Structure formats: structure tokens, C-alpha cells
Amino acid sequence: MGELRDRNYWSPYFAGACAGLVLVLSVLISGNYFGASTSFVRSVGLIEQIFSAERVAQIDYFVKTTPKIDWQWMFVAGVLLGSFVAAKTSGTYKTQAVPDMWRDKFGSNVVFRGTIAFLGGTVAMFGARLADG
Amino acid sequence: MSQLVYGIVTGILFGFFLQRGQVLRYDKQIGALRLLDMTIVKFMLSAILVGTVGIYLLHDLGLAKLSVKSTILGATIGGGLLFGIGWGLLGYCPGTAIGAIGEGRWDGVWGVLGMLAGGALYAEAYPLMQQTLLSWGNLGKITLPGVLHVNHWVVIPVFIIASVGLFIFCEKKNL
Fold first, then answer.
1. Would you say B16 and A92 are in contact if contact means Cβ atoms under 8 Å apart?
2. Can you give the residue ranges of every domain in chain A?
3. Pick from A6, B18, B59, B100: most CB atoms within 10 A?
4. CB nearest A83 (choices: B18, B106, B112)
5. Contact call for A117 and B4, based on CB within 8 A
């Protein structure tokens, strides 16, 4: 098991340093710092526009954070793709609905895990937007 | 248009390194919050160290602008506490929830749906937040070198030494 992990994963120091280098290059080449949570709010605005564009236009937060697909939105989409490629090419892709540590503590009920994950996501995003993270 | 291409290419590279560093895992994220496994701390601090040195070098050469956000005590502390509770429940942050789906851990989907709900709630609550937490203790765009009145190259080596000290501690304790 230990040997397998060494072959399939990189040291977190090395992988982290590579990620830091990508940030520096991004700032140099395109002038963009990394972030993710703003894109969730822009997506919410895009979804709400389908139902009522007039209402979205009247919400202050969507006036400030325009619902649109920008650099960061594409960056977040890229993270999904990059993770998929890295997992597939290293043999570490695994379809899993309940994480191991969760299962050991709370069992393998998918609905329970999903409910808590949903609530956690709701609270985390509210906090992230409040702190402008 | 070219900004969108830069965005997706940068995201692919970043997502690749997140996955290889194992930081997209629930077990690693909760492991860090439970002080059992410091993998994500090692990854984040390594990225921050390289980023800090690289971006301040670019800044000094006139090749980059710093992106400093306002420190608003009410919003930062309130938001940080909420974020921590949500992160502890979900086990992913916004970027890593997306990345986790990429490597097949699809409990991230519930997290992403929750985050969209959280974003919608925040948009509704924003006027109230502006009257309360967002107006409490606004210190402006402060930085550590600015507050200490020293050059950033005084702060950076101290930060590097402290981080390496933490890395050595983690390795000794097998964290």
C-alpha cells in the first residue's frame, strides 16, 4: 500500500510548489489571481436569470458581481478537467459516494452524507462570500 | 476571449497538481481539521511560499500588481467562522469540491449544489450584511509589511523560516 501511494501520488511539498509556480505564471501572463467562490455566485445569477432576468437586475449583489462566464469561471471548470486527467493517468480515479473517514464514523448512508454535504456547502459558501474569499 | 482560454488552461494545471498532491480528498481535508494529517497544510504553505516570493519579485520588477483585499473585521471573522463550520461538515472547500468530482468522489456534487444555494442566500442577505457585518471594523487594504512599517523582504524570510519549522515539526510527528 505504501509503495502504491508513492507511485501514484506526489509529495505535497512538490505538488504545492508546482501549484505556486502556476499562480506566479498566471499573475505574470494574464494578471489573474486564483479564486473559486465568486464563480459560484456568478453561476447562481446565470441560473436565476433563466427564471427572472428583471429580478436579478434589481439584486445589489448581482449588480456588483455580474452573472457571467469570466476567467475564474473557466479556471474552476479547468480544475474539474485537470483533476480528472490526473486521476485517470495515475490510476487513482475512483467513483465513491461516501468518503472512507465518513463511513467509518457515520456509516455508508448516501442520503445522510449528501444532506450534510449540502448543508455544509450552503454554510461554507455564505461564509466565503461574507469574508470575500 | 483569450482570458477564457488562459482561465481553463490555468485551471487544468492547478487541478492536476491538486489531485497529485492528494488535497482533493475528504479524508485529507478533515484529517487536517482534526490535526491528524497535515497533507493539505504542506501543500497550501508550499504553494504560498513559492507564490509569495514569485509575486513580490514580479511586483518589485514592475511586472505584477498585488491583489490586496480589504480587512473588515466583522465580515472576515464572521465569514471565517461560518466557512469553518461549513468546511468541517462538507469536507471540501469550493475549489476542491469541484476537483473531488473530477476524481470520481461525487459526494462533491451535493456540496456544489449546497454552495449554489449558499450563494443565492448570500445575494438575498447582502443588503442586511452591508448594514451589519460588512460595516464593522473596516481596516482597509492592509498588509503585514505595511502594518509593521518594514520592507516586504524583511517579512518574507521570517515567514519562510516559520513555515519550514512547521514542516520539520509535521515530519517529526509523522503528521
1. no
2. 1-33, 35-92, 95-133
3. B100
4. B18
5. no
Whole-number Å distance between alpha carbons of A125 and A109: 24
**A71: closest CA among A38, A24, A44?**
A38
Inter-chain CB proximity A78 and B8 less than 8 Å: yes
CA B169 to CA B173: how far, in whole Å? Answer: 6
Measured CA to CA, the distance from residue B95 to residue B76 in angstroms comes to 19
Is A126 in contact with A114 (CB distance < 8 Å)? no
> Which residues lie below 8 Å from residue B86, measured CB to CB, with a gap of 6+?
A119, A120, A121, A122, A123, A124, A125, A126, A127, B118
Closest-CA distance, B155 to chain A, in angstroms, reads 19
Chain A residues in contact with B125 by the CB 8 A cut-off are 126
Mean pLDDT of B124-139: 97
What's the half-sphere exposure (Cβ side, CA atoms, 13 Å) at A73?
16
DSSP string covering A17-81: HHHHHHHHHHHHHT------HHHHHHHHHHHHHHH-HHHHHH-HHHHHS--S--HHHHHHHHHHH
Q: Chain A residue with minimal CA distance to B72? A: A131
Q: Do the chains contact at B7 and A34, CB–CB below 8 Å?
A: no
What is the gyration radius of the CA atoms in chain A, in angstroms?
19
Q: Do A82 and B25 touch (CB under 8 A)?
A: no
Q: What is the pLDDT of residue A6?
A: 57
Alpha carbons A79 and A90: distance in angstroms, whole number? 16
pTM of this structure: 0.96
Tens digit of each residue's pLDDT (9 = 90 or more) over A73-86: 999 999 999 999 99
Helix A12-29 and helix B2-20, axial crossing angle in degrees, nearest 10: 170
Give A49's contacts in chain B (Cβ within 8 Å).
none
CB contact (8 A) between residue B58 and residue A60 = no
| C-alpha cell of residue B19 | 489531485
ipTM score above 0.90 = yes
